[in-house]
Amino acid sequence: MSSPVHRVSLGDTWSRQVHPDIDSERHAQSFDVERLTNILDGGAQNTACRRRVESIIHSDPEFSGQDNYFMTQNERYEAAMRKTFHTQMLIQRLGWSEKESVYAHRALSGDTVLGVHKIFLKALRSLGSEEQIAKWEPLCKTYQIIATYAQTELGHGTYLQGLETEATYDPATQEFVIHSPTITATKWWPGDLGRSATHALVLAQLICSGARRGMHGFIVPIRSLQDHTPLPGITVGDIGPKMNFDQLDNGFLRLDHVRVPRENMLNRFAQVLPDGTYIKLGTEQSNYLSMVVTRVEILLGEILPHLQKACVVAVRYSVIRRQSRLRPSDPEAKILDYQTQQHKLFPPLAMSYAFHFLAVSILEFFQRSYSAILDRDFSLLPELHALSTGAKAMMADFCIQGAEMCRRACGGHGYSKLSGLPSLVTRVSASSIYEGENTVLYLQVARLIKDSVHQLQTLTQSGADQHEAWNQTTVIHLQAAKAHCYYTSVKSFSDALQKLEDEPAIQQVLKRLCHLHALHGILTNSGDFLHDGFLSGAQVDMVRTAYLDLFLLIRKDAILLTDAFDFTDQCLHSALGCYDGNVYERLFQWAQKSPTNTQGNPAYEKYIRPLLQSWRSKL
């Protein structure tokens, strides 16, 4: 077998010694961990490239994140901006490719800003003409401007047709007048908007020649390029504290009859001529292309890594933590040896792999279809939309549940921010709402599933209004969509296994995870399988037995399967999940860094001392 996976020490002197309880888990490997890492990375050359980028990032003190847990919101923002700035300097100096930039983002655990600046670029490439791309892309790539993507409003999110911001064309001046007509039309939530952005791609309802033409994108300057102050007609700021993303300046934006040139409307799929004539070059769905692009990319880049990291932390901690005895004469057992702990952690671990292969398959389909869509061949867009929509909703839901289960599986220490788990849970929780609220996304998938419309047809045939009939059956449609999405994750996992015939050891261990993933889906929905007659009670018992039998087989490879994700210690930023397993030493050392342990206690003189003295005087 090859050498252990890549890792970077956090610099603690005692971390040079690997804890024997985790070291023993890595002996007698049943498969080549390094080879599995290569498969997950898409090739050994990608693994080498990623590690090279990580080594550069982690060796530079400008990128240190050890004190993040003790920072204020302002300090987090400034630190993230510092890292973003130095990352861009590295990209320019070393000539890093887009792939290497993505690896840098992973190395920094996304603890950066200006991520929505990149979404702006993707939207520009998807919705802008070649002339517009030629004008704006160089300005963005060289950071002569900082742009954000302003779609969500205070009153509307997923329902894009309800967006209230207006862009009215004035043929006399050949300008669009961008306006927020109501308080609920205020743009709300866009990242990088609160403090950083100089420009925004504002999604607004186009009005020209007296007709409303639907949602279109408009590039709007919002801050001065000289002193960064808001431009006339612009009200902009930060929306305040959130569950997570303290480093990110999510903002609000109101526009008071702000004028922009006609050329600032992105016009790959629609144009407004100087006289106000509207020309449609695409479909109604073409304006949603930038959202589809973003959904596809966040599957592997933003949603899944949080579940993978949570699994790494929880599984590693579970072979260090010893609690109670399996037999009275035995030493205290590793908690991962308890079946209940395996029941908590192995399904999320299996999902981590299942969702990886699902996301890869969707990304491959996207890459095949994207160029055709840009050439106005929209035949593949509905399927791409359905695949990305369903995968985003399902992966977000299960990654949130799985990360939270991993946190709970670590007991009291999992409640500490120093474990890294609370921040993983709260960060991935945002994925249920950004880029589309999950319930709405599931229902979009349900509209494409023929079998789920039977009851809808029954109601309609009985005389019910079609729209009311849909509303009365949405719970059933939701269940059908979720089942379909889960099926696609099992199928893509199974398809990926067939491509690993030349890697029998890896294929065998992943096959166990695939089976566990499938059986877990059946057991958690056994009522539906019984109700609809797909399984008998005896067959459900057989499923449960097979499911539990897999635990013992997966248990011996659990650490190796999490090692294969190849997250560095700096990337995990967890006292519980470091590669060496020195949990208690690291947890105690990190706690000493809390400012409350080095600063005075003003509350003592103000309140504690008087309180103590008030009682003493009566004794």
Features:
flavoprotein; Butyryl-CoA Dehydrogenase, subunit A, domain 2; Butyryl-Coa Dehydrogenase, subunit A, domain 1; three-stranded antiparallel β-sheet; AcylCoA_DH/ox_N_sf; 619 residues; alpha+beta; Acyl-CoA_oxidase_C; Butyryl-CoA Dehydrogenase, subunit A, domain 3; lipid metabolism; six-stranded mixed β-sheet; 3 domains
The figure for the number of domains is 3
Question: Roughly what fraction of the amino acids lie in strands?
Answer: 5-15%
Uncertain segments? none
Oligomeric state of shown chains: single chain
Distance between the amino and carboxyl termini: 72 Å
Name of the CATH first level of the largest domain: Mainly Alpha
The CATH superfamily of the largest domain is: Butyryl-CoA Dehydrogenase, subunit A, domain 3
Q: Tell how many strands the DSSP assignment holds.
A: 11
CATH architecture heading of the largest domain: Up-down Bundle
Binned, the helix content reads 40-55%
Structural class: alpha+beta
Mean of pLDDT: 91
Taking the sheet with the most strands, its summary is: 6 strands, mixed
CATH topology name of the largest domain, in short, is: Butyryl-CoA Dehydrogenase, subunit A, domain 3
Overall body shape: globular
Number of helical stretches of at least 4 residues:
22
Radius of gyration, in Å, reads 27 Å
